[in-house]
Design a protein that fits this description.
The chain is α+β, with helices and mostly antiparallel strands. The chain is built from 14 helices and 10 strands. 21% of the residues are buried.
Length: 372
C-alpha cells in the first residue's frame, strides 16, 4: 500500500461509484511508483463485484487514462495507477519493472536457503525452505511441543538434498516430513557433507578407558599382554611346602540369623501406571482423565505390538493438533490402525459418555484393568 498513490487518487481522480472503488483497490496494492499486479478474482473480492464487472471497469479506467495495463497471457496483468502521471513516467515504470522481472528475485540480506532439521523428544522434521530462518521461526510457533534447531544444511540444491535424506530415513518416517530419529542419527546429520550428499550411516562413539585413552566398543579383538610376573591364580599342583596329612581348616560358616533379630524392612515397590497410560503420558506429557483409564487399558492391552501401535497413533494425533482428551476418537483410530482426516479436534466424548462405555466393559474387565 502506498499513501502517495492513494492521495493522488483521492485528489485527482474523476471516477465515481464502483469505478472509484476499483481504482482505490488498485492503489491499495500499488508501490510508490504506482505499479501492482493483483489478480482479477482478488480485486473482485475486494470491491464486492463479479469478475466480469471488474474486467469491464478496468477497461473503462484504462480508456480514461487513470490506469495503464500490460496484459500477460497466463499471468496476472501489470497495472500502473497513472493518476497525476505523464505518459513518459508510466513507460519508465514499466521498463524498470520489466528489467527487475527479467533479472529474477534478489535474495534478501541474511536470507539462507537449504535443508533444516528441527525437533525434540525423538521426533524431528527434515524440510527445506528458501528462507530457513523465517521457516524455522514459523514452525517453532506452530509446533504443539517445544522444538530446537538441530542443524541447517545450506545450498542451492536443497530439493535433491532433502530427497536423499528422506530416502535414507524412510524406515523411520512417522508422518510427512517427521521422523523418529536416534541420537546416532542426529550426530550423523550434524556431520552431513553437502559436497556429495552422503549421510554417515553410523558413528562409532569412543569411550575412555582407565588409563585415560580411548577405546572402541565395537572392537572385538583383545590384546593379550605377556608378562613374567607370577600369576595370582591358585596353583592346581599340590604345594611342596604343605605338610603331609595337614588339612585346610573349613571355611567359617555364616552366623545364623535369629528369627527374633530385627531386620531391615523393605519398602514396598511402587508400581507405575499401566503401560498404555504410560505411553499416553510419554507422548502428550500429561495423563488422561482417570475415568478413562479402564477404557484405554482394556482397548489397548499390554502386548508389545499393540503398545507400539498405540504410541504411533498417539504421536500422529499430537502432530495433527487434535484434542488429546478425545479418547473415544483416539481409540477408534487405534482400532483402525491409522489416524484419518476426520474432525477429531472437537471436545467430544464427555465424562458421561466415558462412564457409559466403561460400564459396558463389565465389572470384571474394569477390575482387571485397574489391578484391583
Amino acid at each position: 500500500m502506498s499513501i502517495r498513490v492513494m492521495t493522488q487518487v483521492w485528489d485527482h481522480s474523476t471516477q465515481k461509484g464502483s469505478a472509484l472503488l476499483l481504482l482505490l483497490a488498485l492503489a491499495d496494492h500499488a508501490a510508490d511508483d504506482g505499479f501492482c499486479w493483483p489478480g482479477i478474482e482478488r480485486l473482485a473480492k475486494r470491491v464486492r463485484m463479479s469478475s466480469r464487472s471488474v474486467m469491464r471497469k478496468i477497461q473503462d479506467l484504462e480508456n480514461s487514462k487513470e490506469i495503464a495495463v500490460v496484459r500477460q497471457l497466463g499471468q496476472h496483468n501489470w497495472y500502473v495507477v497513472s493518476v497525476g502521471m505523464t505518459d513518459d513516467e508510466v513507460k519508465d515504470v514499466f521498463a524498470t519493472r520489466k528489467l527487475q522481472w527479467e533479472a529474477g528475485p534478489v535474495q534478501k540480506r541474511g536470507e539462507r536457503q537449504g535443508v533444516y532439521v528441527i525437533g525434540g523428544d525423538g521426533y524431528y522434521k527434515i524440510g527445506h525452505a528458501t528462507d530457513i530462518d523465517r521457516r524455522i521461526s514459523q514452525l517453532k510457533v506452530q509446533s504443539p511441543f517445544p522444538v530446537e534447531t538441530i542443524c541447517v544444511i545450506e545450498g542451492d540444491d536443497y530439493a535433491e538434498t532433502e530427497r536423499k535424506l528422506h530416502e535414507h530415513y524412510a524406515a523411520k518416517r512417522t508422518n510427512g516430513e517427521w521422523f523418529r530419529l536416534t541420537s546416532i542419527d542426529i550426530e550423523a546429520l550434524k556431520t552431513f557433507d553437502t559436497s556429495d550428499n552422503s549421510v554417515t550411516p553410523d558413528i562409532q562413539v569412543p569411550t575412555s578407558d582407565k588409563n585415560g585413552g580411548t577405546s572402541d566398543k565395537n572392537d572385538k579383538t583383545t590384546d593379550i599382554a605377556m608378562s613374567d610376573e607370577p600369576s595370582l591364580e591358585p596353583s592346581l599342583e599340590p604345594s611342596e611346602e604343605k605338610q603331609e596329612g595337614a588339612t585346610a581348616p573349613p571355611p567359617p560358616e555364616p552366623p545364623a540369623q535369629d528369627d527374633d533379630s530385627p531386620s531391615e524392612e523393605k519398602e514396598p515397590e511402587k508400581t507405575g501406571p499401566p503401560q498404555a497410560i504410560a505411553a499416553y503420558r510419554a507422548v502428550f506429557h500429561s495423563y488422561p482423565r482417570k475415568e478413562t483409564y479402564g477404557f484405554i487399558v482394556t482397548a489397548v492391552g499390554s502386548r508389545p505390538d499393540r503398545l507400539q501401535l498405540w504410541t504411533r497413533i498417539c504421536t500422529e494425533w499430537l502432530l495433527r493438533g487434535y484434542n488429546k482428551y478425545n479418547i473415544r476418537g483416539l481409540i477408534d483410530c487405534f482400532h483402525k490402525g491409522q489416524v484419518g482426516n476426520g474432525r477429531h479436534d472437537k471436545q467430544g466424548g464427555g465424562i458421561d459418555e466415558f462412564l457409559e462405555i466403561a460400564a459396558e466393559l463389565g465389572a470384571q474387565e474394569r477390575a482387571a484393568a485397574y489391578g484391583d
